[in-house]
Design the sequence.
């Protein structure tokens, strides 16, 4: 039987099956304990629905059965042709025998046009009639015995194959697709019901993660602010001396919060109030700190360079000036004066506290 199309209901069943399969696959891939607990019944329901939707479109052994049917049809036609041939015989005795056989054949009209099971029964009855004692002489007269044997053998072969196919056939009603679909829906509901709970669980995890990150950022900023305050307190006492040394008004210097280097080689960036550099940006300078607490200028930065914005991060150029972190001359300007000739000189001397 040729399948020329798929019924609309079958398409709906397929779509339902696919939807349920997709839900199961997504949950399976997610592998979340919350959902796994209700997933197995859904998988089993889908498996049963799949069996019903994958029934063979054509019964098993159809091609073989068609060939066996053609073989017995040919055997029947051979007997018919034999009878018709002897109806045209020269002697009346042969014609009479053929006529008796033809009368028996006429009792079973349209044999080869009948459906499989009916044709099998008709041929069995036909053979029983032809093998009756009263027909023996007529069959012998036209040499019909081989033709009857051929037809009987072909009919038995077909009948045996037909019965074996019935044994393997899936009985009607074995799969109630509507009931199976309802079972899938029933198994699907607990899984779908878990999805809002799963989403809420996921959102809670996200919120917890955001809170953790925010707390971590706040903690980091607090630590950063604390270090800046410590550095600011360390540097401020030496600002007046450095301001005087540089010829700057009192209160001109302030700590920007940026540092470079570590330990004794840490340097600090200071802002100079109301002054700008060649690039038009607020003027800054870098200083180091002597053991005595005094500050000295540290000029290892190229114009436009700046250190880390995180006090104590240790990033930046970190180059150590000649003389163990102090400029030549023991931290005093050349000539021993208290004020440099040019406060903007990048090689300005250090100031002592």
Sequence:
């Amino acid at each position: 039987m040729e399948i020329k199309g798929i019924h609309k209901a079958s398409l709906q069943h397929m779509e339902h099956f696919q939807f349920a399969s997709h839900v199961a696959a997504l949950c399976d891939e997610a592998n979340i304990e919350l959902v796994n607990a209700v997933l197995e019944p859904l998988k089993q329901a889908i498996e049963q629905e799949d069996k019903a939707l994958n029934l063979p479109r054509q019964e098993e052994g159809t091609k073989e059965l068609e060939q066996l049917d053609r073989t017995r049809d040919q055997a029947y036609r051979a007997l018919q042709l034999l009878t018709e041939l002897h109806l045209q015989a020269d002697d009346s005795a042969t014609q009479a025998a053929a006529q008796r056989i033809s009368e028996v054949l006429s009792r079973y009209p349209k044999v080869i046009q009948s459906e499989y099971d009916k044709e099998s029964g008709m041929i069995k009855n036909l053979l029983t009639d032809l093998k009756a004692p009263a027909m023996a002489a007529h069959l012998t007269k036209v040499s019909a015995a081989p033709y009857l044997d051929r037809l009987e053998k072909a009919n038995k072969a077909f009948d045996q194959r037909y019965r074996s196919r019935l044994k393997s056939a899936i009985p009607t009603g074995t799969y109630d697709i509507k009931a199976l679909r309802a079972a899938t829906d029933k198994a699907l509901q607990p899984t779908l019901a878990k999805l809002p709970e799963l989403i809420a669980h996921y959102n809670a995890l996200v919120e917890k993660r955001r809170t953790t990150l925010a707390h971590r950022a706040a903690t980091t900023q607090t630590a950063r602010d604390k270090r800046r305050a410590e550095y600011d307190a360390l540097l401020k006492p030496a600002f007046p001396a450095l301001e005087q040394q540089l010829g700057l008004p009192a209160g001109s210097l302030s700590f920007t919060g940026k540092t470079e280097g570590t330990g004794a080689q840490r340097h600090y960036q200071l802002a100079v109030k109301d002054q700008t550099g060649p690039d038009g940006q607020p003027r800054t300078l870098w200083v180091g700190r002597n053991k005595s607490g005094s500050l000295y200028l540290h000029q290892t930065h190229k114009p436009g360079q700046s250190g880390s914005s995180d006090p104590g991060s240790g990033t930046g150029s970190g180059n150590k000036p000649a003389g163990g972190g102090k400029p030549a001359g023991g931290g005093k300007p050349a000539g021993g004066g208290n004020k440099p000739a040019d406060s903007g000189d990048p090689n300005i001397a250090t100031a002592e506290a």
